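Worked example (supplementary).
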Amino acid sequence: MNLWLKISLLAAVQVAALATMIADKQWTLNRGTQVVLQTEPVDPRSLFMGDYARLNYSISRLRLDGDDAVGGDREFARHDTVWVALKPDPAGARAVSVHRERAAVPAGLLALKGEVSYVADHDWDRASNTSVKRRTLQVRYGIEQYYVQEGTGRQIERPQGGEKVSILAAVDSRGKAGILGVLLDGKLRYRETLF
Amino acid sequence: MNERGFGKRLAQELPRWEAQGWVSAEGRAAILADFAARQAKPAWASALALAGAVLLGVGVITWFAAHWNEMSKLAKLVLVFLALIASHAGNGFCQTRGAMPKLAQGMVLLSVFFFGAAIMLVGQIYHIDAHFPDGLALWAAGGLLTAWLFASQPALLAALALAAVWTWSEQFDYRVMNWPLLGFLALAAVPLARHDWPLAARGWGGVLLLWLAGWHAQTWIGPLWDSNAHLRLFALQVLGVAGLWTLAQASAQPFARALRGDFLLAALAGAFLFTFPDLDLRLSRRAEAAWPWLAALAVTAAFFLAGVARLLRASELPPPRRALAAALAAAFALLLAVEVVVPRSGSVPALFWNALFLALLYWVGDLGIRHADRQLVNRAFAGFSIWVLARYFDTFWTLFDRALFFMAGGLLLLAGGGWLERRRRALLREIEGNDGRGQA
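After joint prediction of all chains, the assembly is encoded as:
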């Protein structure tokens, strides 16, 4: 094969791979159903990608026992794929049930796909400040990182003056989620665009 | 003997051969000139180009990580695509108009780095929070394609290094099996079979061994925890690696030649671990079906025996010694089969393993002497010293008063070490004496 043909082929494959990454994300943002998710603060940094705010949502931790337990299946293992049934709410979407199969998500609810990070048999009860026996599922949805300019991640992770941070996300027909924007006290602070 | 040592020896011996009338003065000069011409020159141009590519690539990656909101998304995307295309174009110009093949290799390596930077930048711009090892896999695949298209060993080395991080991340961090790595390694083996790339070949072997080690992160920790299964799996892996060694040893292919030393070392290290009587200390036995293990054993053993048969057929050893080698190979396979079939109990299997390990060391040393391979002789002696130390700690530790045994054991080791060193030197002298007359 001619040298320049090889170079063109490699460049085309690499550019196509990168474009696919962008197109896949953009598909989710453009075609997905918008939903507001409440966040809980934490913090970090990526060696290769710089500063980012790590986002933990109220729907990341699902209780399987007790009064506030979600419905659905009960047996899960680490790295299992799960389908979470979401009930949208302007103040923050609520997880209604968690399932092993997408078909089990009740009609009328939004199906969000996630991966089990871990399953814990004990949970920390904030009211009594003690560990209680309660099966809990930690789920990752692929919207836990929001990249920000160096040194500004903490503004989102730990907002000053009691500001409430929530995320405007889009959930597409495949159950994939993407971050559309960041809301501070319900007002859109950052909005994601293609360029 | 290595090339440098051979050259030195040649320069020492040639005047004597000339004096004996075996070589003419012209012949002597021609031999030395030919040898000097075939010697690898210090590749400064190549080294500088590759170091430059690494520095520039790392610089670009960290620059993207640091400067975030200084540019618009579009400007960053254009910049990263331009950088990627420029590195490809640079490679093309170096190879055609400039005729600078060394710098072209640097450009090829740079394009691998830029592709990684592009993946990370796109991830950063669009907040793509996917399964982290997938990004590494894509980067490694890009490196492999680059190595394929431009016959570049540096690109393949970079791709293999990325594959190592990818499989480490999947198997040790996420604790899931990285099956796609086998496809990657199969594809990487194609250029390695076509080109004489010893460094990349050894990198390939290293990634394969890392993948095999990564299996144990699955069984040892997590819901599948079962040390009996872990031990069985390990025995199968040792047999498989020994099989790979036999096939590599029987082949004259440069790819196989580069790999065989590392596979032999890995198989020996596996055999050494079985010499520990306490290997089954925490063995938990669970009722489980035996047939999958037996099926895996049958396949692995067939693979090993096919390699041994090839080796024995090609061997120039006299029949009695060939029979001894066959017995050693059979004992090795048999002991591993027992580890797979019968759950280990007590220290009886360890006794057999110790005897076999010593016999294997003897055989490695003997192989080194017959092939005039100093490295093999040194490895056999190093293995023996490690074996003595291991038995000192795990066998006698509990039998004697520690202080007394430290003294007696210390003296024993000093004396043994001195004897071993004298013996090693004598053997190496013997190898030098046999140079040119060594058996194949």
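Two points are worth noting when inspecting this output. Helices of chain A lie at 3-31, 153-157. Chain A has a mean pLDDT of 85.
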